[in-house]
Amino acid sequence: MAKLSNSIEEFLNELIYESGGALEIQRSKISDQFNCAPSQINYVLTTRFTPFKGYYVESRRGGGGYIRIVKVKLEDDEDTLNTFLNFIGDSITKNNCDDVLKELVRRKKVTKREMELIKVSLSDRSLSQCENRDKIRADLLKNMLLVIFS
Q: Which residues partner with 66 through β-bridges?
């Protein structure tokens, strides 16, 4: 599945680049192209085209439904921080937290070692005694981001 997801991501990124940073396409055309279920396209959109990776995704379902993907340039650290904070919201899963941390490494805001330390501190195992892990993880991560971006 990862290979298919990678292919779909590459295909969409190429179309976005060719169209100058914005793309509007029908989900069914993509699923036909890759001979896959539309849910696979949804998976790629929700995991690979996230706000903190610089994408705005709008989707409309139905017969004439479409997907609009816009590549957004985050101008400065304040824009980036706000995007991360909005993405995290009131709670965040371990997998989404790991995605945020990978993006911080990609943006050279933390080292790989720092990322691993943060991942361990925000893991399900570390938060196993907490009643609402995802909420506590979000609060901790947002506070860490405030220090990282200060």
A: 60
Q: Are 119 and 100 in contact, with CB atoms under 8 Å apart?
A: no
Task: Tell the burial category of 35 from Cβ atoms under 10 Å away from its Cβ (0-12, 13-18, 19+).
Answer: exposed
DSSP state of 52: G
CB burial string 89-128: b at 16+ within 10 A, e below: eeebebebbbbbbebbeeeebbeeeebeebeeebeeeebe
Angle among Cα 99, 100, 102 to the nearest 5 degrees reads 65
43, 127, 130 from 146: Cα distances, Å: 29, 21, 23
At 40, list the tokens: 């696979």
Is residue 64 predicted with pLDDT exceeding 70? Answer: no
Question: pLDDT digits over 112-121, tens only?
Answer: 999 999 999 9
β-pairing verdict for 66-71 and 55-60: antiparallel
